[in-house]
Design a protein that fits this description.
With 132 residues, the chain is an alpha+beta fold. It has a single domain, classed as 2,3-Dihydroxybiphenyl 1,2-Dioxygenase, domain 1, CATH 3.10.180. The strands form two sheets. Strands 5, 6, 7, 8 and 9 form a five-stranded mixed sheet that branches. It has a four-stranded mixed sheet with strand order 1-4-3-2, covered by helices on one side. A hairpin with a 5-residue loop joins β8 and β9. It comes from Salinicola endophyticus. InterPro entries: Glyas_Bleomycin-R_OHBP_Dase, Glyas_Fos-R_dOase_dom, VOC_core.
Length: 132
């Protein structure tokens, strides 16, 4: 459905340190740093997906979207918990309920939410069963 997801950061070096470790939990390789039209970016490829962190193109500070959540699929509850715990250890803030199992319209899911150091809301998700 998506070709890529791109978010802004006010500190690309900090973002790369954070995402190299956090996305490494789910098996992604370290990000590839590059410059595009004078902007610093770091890109990650994993499971056919592309995730990019960039300095904002308009030169303004990076901000977060109210209501936005970036979800990352995990292979187990333990991996989702590690995603959360690694994020918090690297400066993220745990948000919403504690990591755990929730009943949702999409079925039973293990969910763990954090806000990255730039304030973007991330969710580590492991589906326990398909929606009925």
């Amino acid at each position: 459905m998506f070709s890529h997801i791109m978010i802004g950061s006010n500190d690309i070096e900090r973002a790369q340190r954070f995402y190299d470790e956090v996305l490494g939990v789910i098996g992604a390789s370290a990000g590839k740093r590059y410059e595009h039209d004078g902007l610093q970016r770091v890109a990650y490829r994993h499971g056919g997906n592309v995730f990019v962190v960039t300095e904002p193109i308009n030169g303004e500070p990076a901000t977060v979207g109210n209501g936005d959540t970036l979800g990352f699929i995990c292979s187990s509850q333990e991996q989702a918990q590690r995603f959360h715990d690694t994020s918090v250890a690297l400066g993220a803030t745990s948000v919403e309920d504690e990591p755990g199992v929730r009943q949702t319209p999409m079925g039973e899911l293990f969910l763990a939410y954090v806000r990255d150091p730039d304030g973007h809301k991330l969710c580590a998700m492991y589906p326990l069963e398909p929606a009925a």
